[in-house]
Write a structure and sequence with these properties.
This protein has 8 helices and no strands. The protein is mainly α.
């Protein structure tokens, strides 16, 4: 092995040169070789370049005689060719016995070939007759089989035509039902929008009136009922579309199979009527080796029978779906109309309750306003009483302040001093009690004012709720799609 990275020396590719002696022509004169020597052996060289063209170079060397030179005088006698004149005999290839033996062999071969040829002629004549009869029999059988095939194709073609007509009628009927279902589904949008608009308008109620009352429950139920009906109708519509697609697929398979049957019937009928004298027959080389068939009689009949059975199954499913769709339209129309009536009843009851509550709020608001007026008068009386306590309080405190200036032992804690102190405390307690009563009265007044504000706000809320339910919502719910529209008939 050569080390990795070293250049390869492919010595095995070099041609091995064998020692060859090039002899002159036998007809040449022996004297013409005087002083001349043949070429020496072609030396084996291991320095041939790595090129394929070098392999042909030894073969391209012409066997010519080299000129005499002094360097050839020193050659050994063993490397020189003997002259033709020195040979005593010529080399022969065969003997007379071989010659006679070869002639006898040729005779026997000729006789054998003649016998085989005669036997072949007889066999050929017999084979031609047999093959002619076999060809006629095969052609009759092929013609008979083609006739049977034409009849089979005609039978299945009539079955396909009948099934195709029934499938087209069923597809048209299902298309009409699907159109009704689409119209009915479109009619449900208006009631749904009315219910959603009512819910949206009732969201504009304020305060405590944003109650989850029976009206709202019935409205949510109505939305759920309509959406449920829409979902069922949409599912049924999707099924109808899928069934129509299946019907069209089955119809397309029937049409394609029928077209193929017609083409095959035309071709096989033409083939059935072809004779040896017919026009248009020709050689088509290699056509028997082309196997373009993709079915056998069993699979061929099963394929058409499968198409017919699939079409019949799709027709049965389509008819069942049409009945289901009609029942669904009737059920959904009844459900939506009944829920529409329930919502209207709930609205009427809620409007009556709101009007009664509004009337009671107005009565309580009037009482609250009267009480507020009386509390304001009481506050004014308390404030006046507090102001009246100011001068006596000043007199008592002024007396005490003056008595603090008495000198030395005159600062006596006498009865007058004690009474003045008690008077200041009594007046202070009176003022504080009046202030407490004022605060209580003001608190009561504030509570009354707050109650008045609540009543006024609640009154506005009730008026707003009454306007929403009575004017806006019931105004939108005056009409509802007719039963014929909900059934998709118009």
């Amino acid at each position: 092995m050569e080390p990795v990275g070293s250049p390869l020396t492919a010595t095995y590719a070099h041609p091995q040169s064998t020692p060859t002696k090039f002899l002159p022509a036998i007809s040449a004169m022996a004297s013409s070789y005087k002083g001349r020597f043949p070429y020496c052996l072609l030396p084996q060289s291991s320095s041939l370049p790595w090129m394929p063209s070098t392999y042909d170079k030894p073969a391209a060397i012409s066997p010519t005689l080299a000129p005499f030179s002094k360097s050839s005088q020193g050659m050994a006698a063993s490397k020189k060719l003997p002259l033709i004149a020195d040979r005593t005999t010529f080399i022969t290839r065969y003997t007379p016995e071989d010659w006679h033996r070869a002639n006898l062999t040729n005779y026997r071969v000729s006789e054998t070939c003649q016998h085989n040829a005669e036997r072949l002629r007889v066999d050929t004549s017999r084979m031609i007759q047999d093959k002619y009869q076999q060809t006629e029999k095969t052609q009759r059988e092929s013609t008979k089989n083609l006739g049977v095939r034409v009849n089979d194709i005609g039978f299945w073609k009539s079955e396909l035509c009948r099934e195709l007509g029934e499938m087209i009628g069923e597809t048209n009927a299902l298309t009409d039902v699907k159109t009704r279902l689409e119209r009915a589904l479109a009619e449900t949008e208006a009631p749904l929008q009315v219910a959603q608009e009512c819910l949206l308008q009732r969201e504009k109620r304020m305060g405590i009136d944003l109650v989850h009352d029976d009206v709202e429950k019935q409205l949510f139920t109505e939305v759920d009922v309509i959406r449920s009906c829409q979902e069922r109708m949409q599912r049924c519509l999707d099924k109808a579309k899928a069934q129509l697609a299946s019907n069209r697929v089955a119809q397309h398979e029937l049409e394609r199979d029928l077209a193929n049957k017609r083409a095959a019937h035309r071709i096989d009928d033409k083939c059935h009527h072809l004779r040896n004298t017919s026009h248009g027959i020709s050689y088509y080389r290699g056509v028997e080796r082309v196997d373009a068939t993709i079915s056998v009689p069993e699979s061929w009949a099963k394929f058409t029978d499968g198409n017919i059975l699939r079409s019949q199954s799709e027709r049965a499913a389509s008819a069942k779906l049409r009945d289901t769709t009609r029942n669904l339209l009737q059920v959904t129309a009844n459900e939506m109309r009944c829920q529409f009536n329930r919502v209207n009843v709930a609205f009427t009851s809620r409007i009556a309750e709101t009007a009664d509550a509004k009337s009671k709020i107005q009565t309580h608001l009037a009482k609250t306003l009267r009480e507020i007026f009386q509390m304001e008068m009481s506050i004014e009386a308390i404030q006046k009483a507090m102001r009246d306590q100011g001068p006596p309080f000043k007199v008592a405190q002024t007396r005490l302040d003056e008595r603090t200036r008495r000198p030395n032992m005159e600062l006596c804690r006498d009865t007058a001093q004690l009474r003045l102190v008690n008077e200041v405390h009594e007046i202070d307690e009176t003022v504080q009690s009046l202030q407490q009563r004022l605060r209580d009265t003001e608190d009561a007044l504030q509570m009354l004012a707050h109650a008045k504000s609540l009543l006024q706000h609640d009154l506005a809320v009730k008026a707003n709720s009454l306007f929403i339910d009575q004017e806006k919502c019931m105004g939108m719910r005056k009409t509802f799609p007719s039963t014929a529209r909900l059934l998709g008939s118009v």
